[in-house]
Amino acid sequence: MQTILYADLIASFMSVSAEPIACQECGQLHRYSPLALGKTANCRRCGALLYRNRPDMLDSVLALTLAGLTLFVLTNVFPLLGLRAQGAEQELHLLGASLAFWDQGYPLLAGLIILNIIIFPLFELLTLLVVVLTIRYHWRSSTAIFLFRWMREFKPWGMLEVFMLGVLVAVVKLGDLATLIVGAAFWSFAGLVLTMAAATTLLDPFSVWRALGKNNG
C-alpha cells in the first residue's frame, strides 16, 4: 500500500513539473525553475547546491579548455626539470618521469602515473571541448553525453595536483644536492593545474546535463 502511494506521489509530482530534480545529497525532489544570472538553487531539506546560473559559463569554460589544451601540449613537449651535478646535466620530461618507474621494474606504477597525469587530464580537456561545442552549436549530443558521464567517473583519478605537490617536494629536497633548473614545462604544468581547477569550478553539471538532454531531443 505504501509503495502504491509513493508511486502515486511521484506520478503526481511528474505531472506538475516536466523537470523534477533530485538532490544528490539527500534525494529530496524539487521542481526546476529558471534562475537569474549569478543565482543558485539549494535543496530545501539539506541546503546542498542543486544548480546555478553562471553568466557566460560556456564561454568561460571554452576559453579555459583551449588554454588548458595549449598548456598540456607545452607541458609534454618541454622539459619539466633539469638537474646539474658534477658537470653533468640531465633533463626530465613529464612522460620521462613516468617511464623511469618502468625502467626501474615498476610497470604497474608507471602505467598508473601515465593514466593519472597524461591520459585522464587529456580526456577531461577533450571532453569539455566536445561538450561545450555540442551545447553551443546544438549538435546531437549522444557522444557528448557518453563522454561527459565517463569524465565525471574518471575525475577523481586525475591527480595533477598531487603530482605537482610531489614535484615541489622534489625541488626542495634536491636543491641541496645539485643545481636544479626549472624548465618551461614546470610553469605550463602549474598553469594547467590552475586552469583545469577553474574550469571545474565554473562548470555546472546540472546545466550541462539539461542542455545536452535538450539537444538529444
UniProtKB/TrEMBL annotation:
Query: Which keywords fit this entry according to its UniProt record?
Result: Membrane, Transmembrane, Transmembrane helix
| UniProt key word Zinc | no
The UniProt record lists the keyword Ion transport:
no
InterPro entries cross-referenced by the UniProt entry? PqiA-like (IPR007498)
Which chain regions cross the lipid bilayer? 61-85, 105-135, 156-174, 180-203
Pfam families xrefs:
PqiA
Q: What is this protein called?
A: Paraquat-inducible protein A
From which organism does this entry originate? Thiothrix caldifontis
